Amino acid sequence: MKISKRKTTRKDELKGLILAGGKGTRLRPITFTRAKQLIPVANKPILFYGLESLQQAGIQDVGIIIGENGDEIQTEVGDGRRWNLRVSYIHQPEPLGLAHAVKIARDFLGDSSFIMYLGDNIIKEGIRAFTERFQEEKPDALILLSPVKDPQRFGVAELKGGRVIRLIEKPKKPPSNLALVGAYIFNSSIFEAVNAIKPSWRDELEITDAIQFLIDHRRKVSSYIIQGWWKDTGKLEDLLEANRIMLEDIQPKCLGEVDSDSTIEGRVVIEKGSHISSSLIRGPAIIGEGVTIHHTYIGPFTSVHHRVTIQDSEIEHSIVLEGSQIQGIPGRISDSLIGKDCILTRNTAKPLRHQFVLGEKSQVSLT
Can you give the pTM of this predicted structure? Predict the structure, then answer.
């Protein structure tokens, strides 16, 4: 793939480092064949939200850490010109920790300060104010925090006068309710830290250990607290919640064909080349390009990607990836993630029976 020629970045300009090398084990079997960062939320790959956030914050040079699904990410993102970005790719043979990703990106980052953004996170309000705070204060590190109801599940920061004095991973007795969100800004002092720390019990170089190294060596580590919504989309329930939240902001649009026997209620997007007949679609929902929907109910918070066929079925609060077919399914499909090119049909032949072709880590629930 041809990558655009690099331009010199001013020393005071932030670079971007997006981590997209994880294996996505919590979303298998989808992620056996698809990078988790490319799973669509509201019909847009998760990774694209991060790229948009970096562009809106004024970042121009972005490095993307890629792993075993790196070819797919390179194909989808290309050289970054659609976001007015210059994108480079850095291969990480194994996901050996966030700090390891920083370590192997040294040649790309040079001595520039940079924002590290986890590619499977969505931060709804963006990161512009976060980067502006860094430029104003010039700390050695600025970490993004958010108040949460269950801090025991997260890395938690202990603050004193706005400065971070300690980080604790999944504490039994949290010193605060402020969890680390998937974005960090560092200056070049972080390289001393990532080279000094040792692998954790997971055999990974942890970014929390690197930040704690900076704290222990009297570097200035500051915090920025967001009040808006953010989500790590690494699990099914989180992915569906992200889809729900992003669909709440869509504006209705119809570029496809809807017959007179169909009803569209609420905020629904229907992309070009799609045909809706004898169906009810109740938004918020999004229907991609080249979709066929017949005698079907599409309920709220459903995203149907391109070239999907749904007939004689009901589905809500779900994500359907491109090329799939759903036909004649009794009952209502809900809270589901249906992968690319899947076929769900009802077998009406006698004797009545269930027939499955399922890959490793598949999940099926029958009622």
Answer: 0.86
